[in-house]
Amino acid sequence: xxxxxxxxxxxxxxxxxxxxxxxxxxxxxxxxxxxxxxxxxxxxxxxxxxxxxxxxxxxxxxxxxxxxxxxxxxxxxxxxxxxxxxxxxxxxxxxxxxxxxxxxxxxxxxxxxxxxxxxxxxxxxxxxxxxxxxxxxxxxxxxxxxxxxxxxxxxxxxxxxxxxxxxxxxxxxxxxxxxxxxxxxx
Length: 186
Fold this sequence. Notes:
The chain has 4 helices and 7 strands. The chain is of the alpha/beta class. It has a domain at 9-138. Strand 4 and strand 5 (87-94) form a beta hairpin. Helix 2 runs antiparallel to helix 3 (141-160) and helix 2 (95-108) crosses helix 4.
């Protein structure tokens, strides 16, 4: 399903982590992202309503910025809530810092969004400033795999001074290792 083009605010993810939520999806591990929503009071209102009714209706769409050369530097996740209140916003993930949680979202098909600032702790508790969202398969997996491998390969080539072949092997091994985390159920 395609989302219509409209203006919406994009918020940068400032911190990430993971959490296993015993009462949700058999305790599967989900990425948690902290986003500073202080300039939009409708989003904390959405969290409050969402936590009261325990369900909502939303559309999601992955997108990429236009690029001329080189690797992508960020990935966006657009979220359009239809209920409990209507609101649209986007999350911006810088690939240098947040590639693992992007992959976690795609692998686990879910995400916990917490309102806060960079130094805040991740707290998954009843009534806290967070929501759990399930994100369906959005026909982005194959494209993401290519971006992720290319991004990690480039990083390992620069940081570890590896050949392209060895850097790609290391990237594939790292991806396999992190995906085991997202696929564990407690």
